[in-house]
């Protein structure tokens, strides 16, 4: 039998001068752009994107990769004992005498001396609590071996604790704490009572900056200046998209309500019926409702020449919150008189509109008004600096379902269409956004970054992104309602199945 012996020159290895290079640690390099923000700008095109992906780079030299087995193989050292290598045994080199001695040494009666047995027994008692020689691992009959009196197992506390059931464990989703994008909003009016941003179903974000309105296409990033008021004393006080997203209603300081065609980028009509600025707007099909500083709410039928079809008189001060329910049955209005009124969509028996509910619990101006998307009779409202409370109402029974102290001015509320949650925007002192769990009203998380009070919130048509406009002249986009990928796929599958059923019915 052939006998191969591998040997290496150890002295030759020690004389090597070139050390084995190690790959240096990776280092991150960040590049961030900052917008100047100094002075007025004709458009919010100057955007800041602090969430740029970081560039990963290495410094120093790197050892090129080597193919295993071809080059750079490990050097085997000479065995310390005589004998064959580990791959091809050599019987002649085996130390049979040494092996025989070790085997017979284990059965040497000298090792089983009484002193040795006592020592092993004491070790077993200290470690296990009983003598291993006297205990049996398996017993077919009889009682199990009892531990000595007074013995306590230190591991009992650790392993006897009950684990948390899987159903009761909290699986919190990931909510980014930083905005997905930041846009400049120069000359945005720092006025609590105005409603200056709105997001259309066609994915256009309308922003009112002083006397101009800009449209930002979220899909392409294109920015369009829709209008600019020529009168230097006038400014845009509210904007609101129709449900289809092809028309934009614009309210002004000079009591006008304008209707703009987005595709043609031209004004269709200008409706004048108020006597003071229009700070809030809301659509219900072809009916456009507008709230003014006088406390009056007007209904406009945009299809006819005589557009002013009704007047709602339930507030004594400016109407700053106005929102139609999703089913079009009720209109909720909040005013600077601390009142919340719920109006029906049709006139009463006397031919006049009167509120079906009036809530007086708020101690400050009510601008934040939002209807729950999955419960048509549930309304959320938020009070101003002197109130700071968020309240949930059942508009049918007129009861307050829950209330929570937000500890800061509530400027806006939006319900999530993906989760049983809603988000609120706040002013002094934190200027933050807060996500709340419904109906427990537990705080999910806070989103910070604005350096001045949050004026308005609006949501993207897919329900994922929330845009916040603040007095620090920035717009921040937060992807705080990202849908779980598995649930998203299931929802898309259900929608496709539903559409296929509809097509089959049409055929």
UniProtKB/TrEMBL annotation:
Domain annotation CDC20/Fizzy WD40: ranges: 183-478
SUPFAM superfamilies: WD40 repeat-like (SSF50978)
GO molecular function: anaphase-promoting complex binding; ubiquitin ligase activator activity; ubiquitin-like ligase-substrate adaptor activity
Pfam families: WD40_CDC20-Fz (PF24807)
Annotated GO CC locations: anaphase-promoting complex; centrosome; cytosol; kinetochore; mitotic checkpoint complex; nucleoplasm
Composition-biased stretches (Low complexity): 35-50
Keywords: Cell cycle, Cell division, Mitosis, Repeat, Ubl conjugation pathway, WD repeat
Ranges occupied by WD repeats: 229-270, 312-343, 447-478
Pathways per UniProt: Protein modification; protein ubiquitination
Keyword Cell division attributed: yes
Example GO biological process: anaphase-promoting complex-dependent catabolic process
Record SMART domains: WD40 (SM00320)
UniProt key word Cell inner membrane: no
Chain segments annotated as transmembrane: none
Annotated segments matching region Disordered: 15-88
Quaternary structure (record): Component of a complex with CDC20, CDC27, SPATC1 and TUBG1. Interacts with NEUROD2. Interacts with dimeric MAD2L1 in its closed conformation form. Interacts with BUB1B. The phosphorylated form interacts with APC/C. Interacts with NINL. May interact with MAD2L2. Interacts with CDK5RAP2. Interacts with SIRT2. Interacts with isoform 1 of NEK2. Interacts with HSF1 (via phosphorylated form); this interaction occurs in mitosis in a MAD2L1-dependent manner and prevents PLK1-stimulated degradation of HSF1 by blocking the recruitment of the SCF(BTRC) ubiquitin ligase complex.
Purpose: Substrate-specific adapter of the anaphase promoting complex/cyclosome (APC/C) complex that confers substrate specificity by binding to substrates and targeting them to the APC/C complex for ubiquitination and degradation. Recognizes and binds the destruction box (D box) on protein substrates. Involved in the metaphase/anaphase transition of cell cycle. Is regulated by MAD2L1: in metaphase the MAD2L1-CDC20-APC/C ternary complex is inactive and in anaphase the CDC20-APC/C binary complex is active in degrading substrates.
Family the entry assigns: Belongs to the WD repeat CDC20/Fizzy family.
The name this protein goes by in its record: Cell division cycle protein 20 homolog
Name of the encoding gene: CDC20
């Amino acid at each position: 039998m052939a006998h191969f012996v591998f040997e290496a020159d150890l002295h030759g290895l020690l004389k090597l001068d070139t050390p084995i290079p190690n790959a240096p640690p990776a280092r991150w390099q960040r590049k961030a752009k900052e917008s100047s923000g100094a002075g007025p700008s004709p458009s919010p095109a100057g955007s800041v994107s602090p969430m740029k992906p970081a560039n990963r780079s290495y410094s120093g030299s790197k050892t090129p990769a080597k193919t295993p087995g071809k080059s750079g193989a490990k050097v085997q050292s000479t065995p310390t004992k005589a004998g064959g290598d580990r791959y091809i045994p050599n019987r002649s080199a085996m130390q049979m005498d040494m092996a025989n001695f070790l085997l017979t040494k284990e059965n040497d009666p000298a090792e089983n001396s009484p002193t040795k047995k006592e020592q092993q027994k004491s070790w077993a008692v200290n470690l296990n609590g009983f003598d291993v020689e006297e205990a049996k691992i398996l017993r077919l009959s009889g009682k199990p071996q009892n531990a000595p009196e007074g013995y306590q197992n230190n591991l009992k506390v650790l392993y006897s604790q009950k684990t948390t059931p899987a159903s009761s464990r909290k699986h919190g989703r990931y909510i980014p704490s930083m905005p997905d994008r930041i846009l400049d909003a120069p000359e945005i009016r720092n006025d609590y009572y105005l409603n200056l941003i709105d997001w259309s179903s066609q994915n256009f974000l309308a922003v009112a900056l002083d006397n101009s309105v800009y449209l930002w296409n979220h899909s392409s990033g294109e920015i369009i200046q829709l209008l600019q008021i020529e009168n230097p004393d006038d400014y845009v006080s509210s904007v609101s998209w129709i449900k289809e997203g092809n028309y934009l209603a614009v309210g002004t300081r000079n009591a006008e309500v304008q209707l703009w065609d987005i595709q043609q980028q031209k004004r269709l009509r200008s409706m004048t019926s108020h006597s003071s600025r229009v700070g809030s707007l809301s659509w219900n099909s072809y009916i456009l409702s507008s709230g003014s500083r006088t406390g009056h709410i007007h209904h406009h039928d945009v299809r006819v020449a005589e557009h002013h079809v009704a007047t709602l008189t339930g507030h004594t001060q400016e109407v700053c919150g106005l929102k139609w329910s999703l089913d079009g049955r009720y209109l909720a209005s909040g005013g600077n008189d601390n009142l919340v009124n719920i109006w029906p969509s049709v006139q009463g028996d006397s031919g006049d509109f009167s509120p079906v509910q009036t809530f007086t619990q708020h101690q400050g101006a009510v601008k934040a008004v939002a209807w729950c998307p999955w419960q048509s009779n549930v309304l959320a409202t938020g009070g101003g600096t002197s109130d700071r409370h968020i309240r949930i109402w059942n508009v049918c029974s007129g009861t307050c379902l829950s209330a929570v102290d937000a500890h800061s001015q509530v400027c806006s509320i939006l319900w999530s269409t993906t989760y049983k949650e809603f988000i609120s925007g706040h002013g002094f002192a934190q200027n933050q956004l807060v996500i709340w769990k419904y109906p427990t009203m537990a705080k999910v998380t806070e989103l910070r970054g604005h350096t001045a009070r949050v004026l308005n919130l609006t949501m993207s048509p897919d329900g994922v992104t929330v845009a916040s406009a603040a007095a620090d002249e920035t717009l921040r986009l937060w992807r705080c309602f990202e849908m779980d990928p598995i649930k998203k796929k299931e929802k898309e599958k259900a929608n496709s199945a539903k559409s296929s059923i509809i097509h089959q019915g049409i055929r």
